[in-house]
Amino acid sequence: MASTLVRIKRIYEPAVKSDGYRILVDRLWPRGVSKAAARIDLWMRDIAPSTALRRWFNHDPAKWEEFCERYRTELREQQPLLDAVRQQAKDGPVTLVYSARDERFNQAVALKLVLKQSITRKRSTT
């Protein structure tokens, strides 16, 4: 899976064909967005950070590095979901959709980093 096949996008931005397979990676459904307008192919609630981690982080840039480490730890228990995203990306573009206002410090950015790092590791061991 090329990392260019995994993208991130706010749910409030219009869905376009080039998004490919759209996966919502929030634990809660975004406010003010109908399911029809969201055009989500799959809602992966369990790949999102735990409620406790999300509340602790609160999109504070000063906590970003620690958030990424804690989230990565949580994702170790969600390996089948990570594998599903990787598998889907083999078939075409995947867009990780999120609702956070902060476009730089959110779970979709962290999740994309985890996916990219695990792919790099797999390539280097083969």
Please render the helix and strand layout as text.
Blueprint: E1 6-10, E2 21-24, H1 35-38, E3 42-43, H2 51-57, H3 64-75, H4 79-91, E4 94-98, H5 107-125
Parallel strand pairs: 1-4, 2-3, 2-4
3D architecture notes:
Helix content is 44%, strand content 13%. It has five helices and four strands. Strands 1-4-2-3 form a four-stranded parallel sheet. The radius of gyration is 14 Å and the shape is globular. The model has no long low-confidence stretch (mean pLDDT 90).
Structure described in brief:
With 126 residues, the protein is of the alpha/beta class.
Descriptive terms for the model:
globular; single chain; alpha/beta; 126 residues
Major sheet attributes = 4 strands, parallel
Low-confidence stretches: none
Rg from C-alpha positions?
Answer: 14 Å
- Fraction in helix: 40-55%
Assembly status: single chain
Number of beta-strand segments: 4
Per the principal axes of the C-alpha atoms, what is the gross shape?
globular
Strands ordered across the widest β-sheet = 1-4-2-3
Distance between the termini: 14 Å
Strand content is 5-15%
Number of discrete helical segments: 5
Sheet/helix structural class: alpha/beta
Overall mean confidence score, pLDDT: 90
Note the run of SSEs as H and E.
Answer: EEHEHHHEH
